[in-house]
Amino acid sequence: MTDPSCSPEIAPAGENPLRVLYRDDWLLAVHKPAGLLVHRSPIDRHETRFALQYARALNNGRHVYPIHRLDRPTSGVLVFARDPGTASVLGQKMMAGAVRKTYLAIVRGWPPAEGVIDYPLRDEPEDRRLKGREQPVREAVTRYRTLATTELPVAIERYPTSRYALLELSPETGRKHQLRRHLKHISHPIIGDANHGRGRHNRYFAERFGQGRLLLAATALEFEHPADGRRILIEAEPEPSFRDVMAIFNL
Q: Which residue among the candidates 24, 25, 44, 71 is catalytic per the annotation?
């Protein structure tokens, strides 16, 4: 597989959609908007805009190395290494579970105040040609905490009102689409999730707020700096399209 950090493509002309959150000699952390792929992928072979290109533009045109995954419809904190050595060290920390990731999600229903979802997940290959083949099942653990709840006077399913919750999610493993699949597993799917969510609720939010985005945002990443060991916390509040929907909780 081609290393995405070595693609010769340059960022398209126009405004850079990435917002710098942190930068030093080893790291570049940005806020990625929803709808932007991190790098070229079989998911959409015709896409020409990638976060990797724009991150390079912020790095004076030099290579950057993505150290973790952030799905196309998910917005939030995205960290790049500025050299291969740093990328290797942080990649190992990711594999060892030494990087703490925090997300916000708006889900259907009212989950318990807090909980742990310990539910193994089967690998989901990006290459569609492999989807018919048996894939390994791997351990997957997500902790969650309910931050707010609301009940709207709209009948979407068989009840006269509809309940929603704002959750803080902390994945302890990094399986593909882990948060989306785990929330579906406990019957509290993320609003706007076309693959694992509930279509009626997704359509209601799309019509009410004028956009049908996935309501999942990476809001914080915490780890030891690979150069000197100091603790680094990189945070970003959700982008406006997410905050607009958060208004239903009257926070």
A: 71
Q: Tens of pLDDT along the chain (251 residues)?
A: 334 444 445 556 568 999 999 999 999 999 999 999 998 765 666 666 889 999 999 999 999 999 998 999 999 999 999 999 999 999 999 888 899 999 999 999 999 999 999 999 998 766 555 555 667 899 999 999 999 999 999 999 889 999 999 999 999 998 989 999 999 999 999 999 999 999 999 999 999 999 889 999 999 999 999 999 999 999 999 999 999 999 999 87
What are residue 107's phi and psi, to 5 degrees? -125, 160
Name the residue type at position 97: G
What is the rounded end-to-end Cα distance, in angstroms, of the chain?
45
Q: Are 235 and 92 in contact (CB under 8 A)?
A: no
The tokens for 227 are: 């150069």
CB atoms within 10 A of CB 122: 13
Do the beta carbons of residue 237 and residue 244 sit within 8 Å? Answer: no
Tokens found for residue 30: 């940005």
| Beta carbons of 45 and 127 less than 8 angstroms apart | no
| The pair of three-digit structure tokens given for residue 42, joined into one six-digit string | 């079989």
H-only helix segments in 69-193 = 84-95, 178-185
Q: What is the pTM of this model?
A: 0.89
Domain ranges of the chain: 4-249
- CATH number for 4-249 (one of 3.30.2350.10, 3.30.420.40, 3.30.70.100, 3.40.50.2000): it is 3.30.2350.10
Decide if 71 is catalytic: yes
